Amino acid sequence: MVVAEPRLTLERRLLRERPIVIACDEVGRGALAGPVAVGVAVVDAARARKRVPTGLRDSKLVPEPRRAEVAGRAAEWVLHSAVGWASSAEIDDIGIMRALGLATARALADLRAHGVVPEEAIVILDGNYDYITPAGERGLTVRPVIKADRDCASAAAASVIAKVARDTLMVGLHDELPQYNWASNKGYASPDHREAIRAHGLSPHHRASWSIGDAPTLF
User: Fold this and answer.
1) Does 54 score more than 70 pLDDT?
2) pLDDT value for 215
3) Which of 20, 39, 120, 175 would be a feasible disulfide site paired with 158, CB 3.0-4.6 Å?
4) Is 76 annotated as a binding residue?
5) What is the DSSP string of 39-50?
6) Binding of a divalent metal cation: at which residues (predicted)?
């Protein structure tokens, strides 16, 4: 099957309105363990005139052995990028949607520390729901776009950068608690992960508020 390459069609149109576009995409929303991560990638007119990095796709469509390489090219291509996090404890405390907003706010704070002014941007948010504005980021222009990570190169960059960051973190947590095999399943509801939960119970990194025993397999 031929997978369509993400383009810069939307970004170029939005850059007629604002000096920068910030694309956001989440990773780990459906996992049973570990944090949720939101990647943000900034594109300006100069970047939008360049060729999309080779191999850039929504992170789910990039083979795992190639993700780090593709993420590196994506990070070099965009003006700035960052990853924001919300922990499993925070997800339990405030719920997944508010946690996504919190993680995005932290990623945007990282951008601000590097001189980016998000209020000057149009923010492309993958999906159909704006979870950024309720997190207190009320001065932003947010455009939810369904399948942005598939169709928009900036969102694909945010996706793969966040995916590699979160996978790296989960591999590190595997070394701490190898019985859950997070190096392989990255905290998602694979059969081996659920079997480990049945055998060993929940760890501090699991989302204890979730109905983990009934969770479907999500990748």
Assistant:
1) yes
2) 47
3) 39
4) no
5) EEEEEEHHHHTS
6) 25-26, 126
Interval 107-126 mean pLDDT: 98
Write out the DSSP string of 170-186. HHHHHHH-GGG-HHHHT
Q: What is the DSSP letter of 103?
A: H
Please tell me whether 26 is known to bind a ligand. yes
Q: Please say if the pLDDT value at position 191 is more than 90.
A: yes
Mean of pLDDT values over 68-79: 97
CA atoms of 156 and 7, how far apart (whole Å): 9
User: Helix and strand tally (H, E) in the chain?
Assistant: 9, 5
Architecture in CATH for domain 9-168? 2-Layer Sandwich (3.30)
Residue 157 one-letter amino acid: A
pLDDT in tens, 33-51: 999 999 999 999 999 999 9
90 is in an annotated binding site: no
